[in-house]
Amino acid sequence: MRIGILGLGRIGAFHAETLSGLDAVESLVLADPFADAAKTAAERFGGEVADSPEAVLAAGIDGVVIAAATDAHPGLILAAVEAGIPVFCEKPVAKTMTEGVEVLKAVQGKGVPIQIGYNRRFDTGFVAARTAVQAGELGRLHTVRSTTLDPAPPPAAYIAASGGIFRDCSVHDFDIIRWVTGREVTEVYAVGGNRGADYIKEAGDADTTGALLTLDDGTIAVISNSRYNARGYDVRMEIHGFQDSIAVGLEDKLPLRSVEPGVTFPAGTPHDFFMDRFTEAYRAELTAFTEVVAGTRSSPCTIEDALEAGWIAEACTLSLNEHRPVTIQEVRQT
């Protein structure tokens, strides 16, 4: 099949490399506002360079991957849907939840599949955890702990435009908690601190946060996030039930050091970046998209899924700012 890619920055170029290695993908059509970015990707991974998104959509492609700036997501999604082309779009659907709801309403009933990029759904550890929960191996759940710790903060320009740590970082934890447990979040309470770079605080954001989520069956989820983890990129989940407890990310590349006498675990080189931690998950995610394009599977992460994680982020942001518990119903728009 023939796949278009809109946006050839860091993640777009990574997707181009991944797609170029998939058997189902015969050719790529690439476009970026900076022509040199598309040209460089084409030279490295093969494919044609188009001079605009419109040219990509008109180039006889079977599906399109949107890895452009967030502001461009709504327009590009709608243009692809109007052209009848299946869409993979990196999260978020839009910069604001209001825009995201508008996109959802605009594409409903069009019959064009849309997959939103939440790569943890394709990581083998998280898949195994979901399977164990669904099979009842843990019994009734009582506690979930989810962690995302970055080795260093993004640049000031990214922080200023990101919408805050809950919307650009924690949202991955929110999505994977919903997906693994099969439950919805009803209420949140969030806290945050600033002990690092001044530009994060100046942007009205926190560099380290914690959130307590209450799920609709009474399970408690504890989320920990930080822009600072000197030892590496740390993504983990613990799931505790009345019959068993399991963990994702408890492996030799875990960026954590034990001080217990005689303990040598973890013994590997720590993960240092999200592309390192989730290389195979990204491959599985884009393989899934080729199956969506081929019509052999439905979207494994819909716009509705992405918006549900977004409402949790909105509630946590409000909770942090107002120092109080917030229900999802309080922030949800219809």
From TrEMBL:
It holds the Pfam family GFO_IDH_MocA. Coiled coil: none annotated. InterPro entries: Gfo/Idh/MocA-like_OxRdtase_N, GFO_IDH_MocA-like_dom, NAD(P)-bd_dom_sf. The keyword Nucleotide-binding does not apply. Residues 126-245 form the GFO/IDH/MocA-like oxidoreductase domain. One of its GO terms (molecular function) is oxidoreductase activity. The keyword ATP-binding does not apply. Keywords: Oxidoreductase. Residues 1-118 form the Gfo/Idh/MocA-like oxidoreductase N-terminal domain. Belongs to the Gfo/Idh/MocA family. This is Dehydrogenase. It comes from Streptomyces dysideae. The lineage of its organism: Bacteria, Bacillati, Actinomycetota, Actinomycetes, Kitasatosporales.
